[in-house]
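Researcher: Re-running this chain for the archive, since the previous output was lost when a drive failed. Same request as before.
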Amino acid sequence: MTKFAPFDAADYLDNEKVIAEYLNAALEDPNPDVFLVAVRDVARAHGMAQLAKDTGLGRESLYKALTPGAKPRYDTMLKLLQALGVKLQAFPVHIDAPKQRLVGKKKQAS
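Model: Regenerated structure tokens:
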């Protein structure tokens, strides 16, 4: 029988670009716990002890804040994301198509 090691996303979160893409995918899910688990995966990849040092938060507090169902404070999440090398940005949901302008074009005479 073939045995497989359990999948652990933290094993693949090795640079800021991959981390940002992973977190963006988690943000697309309407369940807020998906984002918390994703941040926890990134935190484990980074190293919880190092992250605690970088943020000034206790390791136990980090685990507690990133547990599904937790309601971490906004400032806690900002510290975490900054220490992980990523930031959140807002973009408009509905983007208007660029309006075509006829600048400098003259109407041709028939």
